[in-house]
Design goal:
The chain is of the alpha+beta class. The protein has four helices and five strands.
């Protein structure tokens, strides 16, 4: 039995107020699928299945397992992102009291002592003794503070 999604994409259908619609931009960018979209597609497939030829229970179980996998992958992605952010914060605070060399926006290089770290949504910002603020990506070298 062809599934409801592939049938809906190949067979012209009359759209009524109770017919679920699919945002065409989602079909153009399959990476934008998330668990909400997966659940909507599964419900639509169940709702519009042929009652004389219902979905095979093993197929339903496979789709349920896929849904669980998508959900767990999203949770894992969130946890990895949090871990990376924590690592960046730890690295930034470890630079307090160190001298860093960095590249300015104009391409010139400079150096300064890190006196503090400010935490921004896009990542940590190092504040140098002369009040210069630089991002972690601008650092070219790190050394012990010179006396």
């Amino acid at each position: 039995m062809p599934d409801a999604i592939s049938a809906a994409m190949t067979t012209p259908q009359v759209v009524t107020s109770d017919t679920p619609t699919l945002d065409p931009s989602l079909l153009e960018n399959p990476d934008s699928f998330d668990q909400e979209m997966f659940l909507q597609l599964l419900v639509a497939q169940l709702k519009y299945q042929n009652p004389l030829d219902p979905m095979d229970s093993s197929e339903f179980m496979a789709q349920s397992a896929q849904f669980t996998t998508v959900e767990k992958l999203e949770q894992l992605t969130t946890k990895i992102g949090e871990s990376i952010a924590n690592d960046r914060l730890g690295t930034a605070t470890g630079l307090i009291g160190r001298e860093v060399s960095f590249t300015r926006a104009d391409g010139s290089t400079a150096a300064g002592d890190v006196t503090s770290v400010r935490f921004e949504p896009f990542g940590p910002v190092l504040v140098l003794s002369d009040r210069t603020e630089i991002g972690m990506a601008d650092i070219s070298s790190v050394s012990a503070r010179t006396a």
